[in-house]
Write a structure and sequence with these properties.
This protein has helices at residues 12-24, 68-74, 85-94, 105-111, 120-128, 148-159, 161-174, 178-191, 213-233, 243-252, 257-261, 267-285, 305-323, 327-330, 333-343, 361-365, and strands at 7-9, 29-37, 45-52, 57-60, 78-81, 102-104. With 373 residues, it is of the alpha/beta class. The chain has three domains: 7-191, Nucleotidyltransferase, domain 5 (2-Layer Sandwich); 198-291, HRDC domain (DNA polymerase, domain 1); 299-365, DNA polymerase, domain 1, CATH 1.10.150.80. Helix 3 links the parallel strand 5 and strand 6 (102-104). The protein is globular, with a radius of gyration of 24 Å. Its EC number is 3.1.13.5.
Length: 373
Amino acid sequence: MADVNFDMIETEAQLAPLLRFLNEQKAMVLAIDTEFVRTRTYYAQLGLLQIFDGQQCYLIDPLKVEMAPLWEALAKHHWVLHAFSEDLEIIQRVSGKFGLSVFDTQVGAAFLGHGISLGYQRFIDTELDIQLDKGESRTDWLARPLRSSQLEYAALDVIYLLPAYLKIQQQLKDEGRFDAALEESARLAALKKRVFNQDEAYKDIKNAWKLNPQQLAVLQVLARWRAQQAASRDLAINNVVHGDSLWALARYQPSTMEQLQRLGLPPQELRIHGQRLLKLVKQGQQTKTVDFPQAIKRIVDYPDYKKTIQELKKVVAKVAEESGLPEDVLASKKMLNQYLSWLWKEDRQAAELPLLLTGWRQPLFANHVAQEA
C-alpha cells in the first residue's frame, strides 16, 4: 500500500490544534467515518474516529482523549459519510450531536442508479476507479496498539470519500436530484435521534401478531424487561433471553418451574432467569383488560392487500419512468405498506402522513395516489 498521510491524535496536546482549527473555520464539508466493534454487546463500541477536510486526515483515538469538545466542534460543520446508519447510531449515543447537515453518499449513489446498498469499496471503484484493500475490515478496533496497516485502511475510508462525494454531488446537481438526496439523508439521520420506546419492544418479537391481547400484555412486560436488561448490562438483546423464548412464555404463560422447563428454553436462560421470568409472566397477567395492547393486525392480512400492493407497485414504476429515479429509491415495500396502513385507517387525520405524501416524494406521487385525510 502506498504511503498514506494522516495525523494520529492520542493526547489532549495533539487534539488541541484540531479543535482550534474546527472552531475557527467557517462551516466546511468534512468526510467522517467511525471504526467500531459490536459482538455480544448491546451498544457498538467506538474504536476510532476518522476526519478528512480535503487537505489533512485525522485519526482520533476515543480511548485516549476526551471526545466531548471534538463533537462540539464537529457539529459546526457539514458531514459526509458512507452508509451512515451505524456511524450515526454510535455518534448519537456518545455525543448526541450531528453536523449542520449530514449526507450519506450511499443514498446519493442510489439516486444515480447504483442501487440502495452500494458498499464503500465499490463506490470508490465506481467513482474514482480506485480499488481499495478490504484486508482490515474485520479488525478489532478496540485492541491497542493499532497496526500501521489498520490505520492506513481507516484513513482511506475518508481520504477517498470526500473527492467521491464531490463527484456525485455534481452529478446529482446536473440531474436536479441533489436536494432530494440531501433531504433523504437528513430524514434517515433524524431516525437515529429517535428514542427507542421500550414499551413498544414487544412488537419486534417474531410472530407477535399470532398472540391475542392478553398474551400481548404478558409479552409487553417480558420484552420491556429484556430491553432494559440489554441496555443496562450492555448485552446483545438475544443474549439476555431469546425472542422465541419470550414468545413461548407469553403464549403458554407457565406458573411453575416445571411448566417453564417444558417450554424448551435454553438451559442457560432457565438457570439465570427462570424465577424472574415466572414473576414477569405473573406481572403481565395482572394487566387490566383496559390496558391490553391491541391485537396486531398485519397489513398483509387485509382482504385487498395483494391486489392493492400490485397496483401500487405499478404506480411506483410509472413515477420512476416519469422522474428518471430508480424504483428502489422512490419507495421500498416497507414504504408502500406504510402508505396502505395509513390509507386504510379509520382516522387518517390522527395518523402520521406516510412517506409517499411527504418531502420530495409528495409532488412525484401527488397525481397518482389518494392523499385526502
